[in-house]
Amino acid sequence: MLEEYLVFTGRPNAGKSSIIREIVGLDVVTGKRPGTTRNISKHPLNSGLVLIDMPGFGRIMGVSKRLENMRKNRIIHFLESNAQNIVLAIHVLDISTFLETSWRLEKKGIISIDVEMIQFIAKTLREFPLVAANKIDKTDKKEIDANLKEFMHRISNGHISAVAGKVFPVSAKTGEGLSALKSAIHEKLVAKGYRTPFKAR
Ligand SMILES: Nc1nc2c(ncn2[C@@H]2O[C@H](COP(=O)(O)OP(=O)(O)OP(=O)(O)O)[C@@H](O)[C@H]2O)c(=O)[nH]1
Ligand SMILES: [Mg+2]
Question: For the stretch 77-95, what's the b/e string if a residue is b when 16 or more beta carbons lie within 10 angstroms of its beta carbon?
Fold first, then answer.
């Protein structure tokens, strides 16, 4: 039987593995340094779905350009070649540094990797991913709100209402917002005819 996937994507160090740990309870490796998850890691869930913990997509200090490109190509290839079998994608980003990182990249004429990746996922899977705007514990609420507003503006090309219900501010560290994200994943999967990947809720 063909495998069907629940995929977590995002830049290095965004907190993908931490969120998976917290909401699904899998014992995946997390780490302080970007580049902790090195391979496309498959974790079969008892709901029949296979959870994918992706390596980070983007630059990592100390990693050669060649290796970085190889990892990026593997991620893109996985998403493109399994588009039909990906039941749901969850994109994780560090919202606490979103504007700062975007401005730095824009000065060099580069679009935010998160915005680009979310749009790539939406196009490839023909469905907008759920987004975990992680690390909201790292700065004050005012800054998080400003970052969220600008982020939502950019991923929706200015039509914020089009992404309503898709973006979940969370902290894998404090647990804030995780139950809303979990419910959204649960509802999406059940609506598509899958059993919940979570234990008793
Ligand atoms: N303050 C804070 N730290 C977090 C949060 N989520 C994750 N972290 C920390 O961020 C670092 C990276 O977390 P990981 O879960 O390993 O990140 P990842 O996206 O899987 O990273 P790669 O595997 O390198 O792509 C770890 O030191 C985590 O403890 C959060 O919500 N708040
Ligand atoms: Mg990881």
Answer: ebbeebeeebbbbbbbbbb
